[in-house]
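Worked example (supplementary).
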Amino acid sequence: MGELVNIFIKSAFIENLALAYFLGMCSYLAVSKTVKTAFGLGLAVIFVLGITMPINWVINTWLLGENGVFQTDLTFLRFILFIAVIASMVQLVEMVVEKYSPSLYNSLGIFLPLITVNCAILGGSLFMVSKEYNFSEAVAFGLGGGFGWFLAIIAIAAIREKIKYSAVPPAMRGLGMAFLLTGMMGMAFMGLMGIDPASFK
Amino acid sequence: MADVAVVEKKEAIKFGKKERKLLTDPLDDNNPITVQVLGICSALAVTTGLKNATVMAVAVVFVCVFSNTITSALRKSIPKQVRMIVQLVIIATLVTVVELTLKAYAFESYKQLSVFIGLIITNCIVMGRLEAFAMANRPYESALDGLGNGIGYGIILLIVAFFREFFGKGEIFGAKIIGATPDYMINTAESAWLGWYQYNNLMVLFPSAMFVIAVLIWAHRAWNPKLVDVS
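After joint prediction of all chains, the assembly is encoded as:
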């Protein structure tokens, strides 16, 4: 159990998908204008990552692996199957959100389908493969990664809300400032790199 | 029926003002990275060196052109509801081709780019152009649009990579330009005039890519004021 908590903390803070690997930047920059929409997208990302990671683990191990159902190495199909799982999961989330929270659905608008092409989701699954996690570790990694991304997008949305009141050079307004802020947040998060949660026992 | 085909073919091969605009627009007014904010992730991750950036740029141009062409050719037979999945399967197939090609012929680059080859699938440029352009236009124009966007993306990638490699490692395409190498620790004639430069290690790390792109955006918008964000 302790190991799973370690993986969760590690993927949320030390190897933050958004601020240490800079994954999922497109929606991160596009949807972070207000905290409210950022909150909704962050929750959706946690949910999608938490679901797709175990499903992709099962597909990768039991379907594509050499000891899987087909007894052959089918890993060249990995991209296609992973992205198909992600696309269908996003469709599912979209339907659920539309049913239970129409206001959130309207405010997220086009960005919900865009989670499909959020690199954090596919990147998370590919990292999970390259790190050779087992099933429960993959779940912890998915939830932790999603939580870290959620924190990052809320933080930048809050900063961007405040920075509206500052006198920024016109050419730097909006996008340019968002890039600079993300760079600085990335530097701050670099301070956490190299910490090993397992050593705190 | 034959006449129609001939007319279409005549139209298809011309390269006029409109076609040129398709190619050049993404280089400036509608640049994928600095204006459309698409495909940032890979731009940040692979730009530590010019060599990787070149491989990535070529891969993205390839995927962009062919996915645009294929989707555009199939656009009338793709049902609206499942178009995302169809598009993603087309892209994923092309990316698998790129991945296996790199694995066979450029294993060194393949190892360094690792997951970021796979992430071309979720590179929003490819997907974004399919949605915005290829689903509504003929294959020839779509191919040009893909080429233009791929090149617009590649140019930014190379500029960012140049700054990061030059100031971070003092190299261009792996060739030493400024700064001392460990071999130069012995006082050679060259180290006296090359060794004054201290490597800026931050340039090799992720956040510096953000800063370089921020400055690029600043310069681009100062030079082209109609892009300034008014909100």
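Two points are worth noting when inspecting this output. Confidence is low (pLDDT under 50) at residues 1-10 of chain B. The CA atoms of residues 126 and 132 of chain B lie 10 Å apart.
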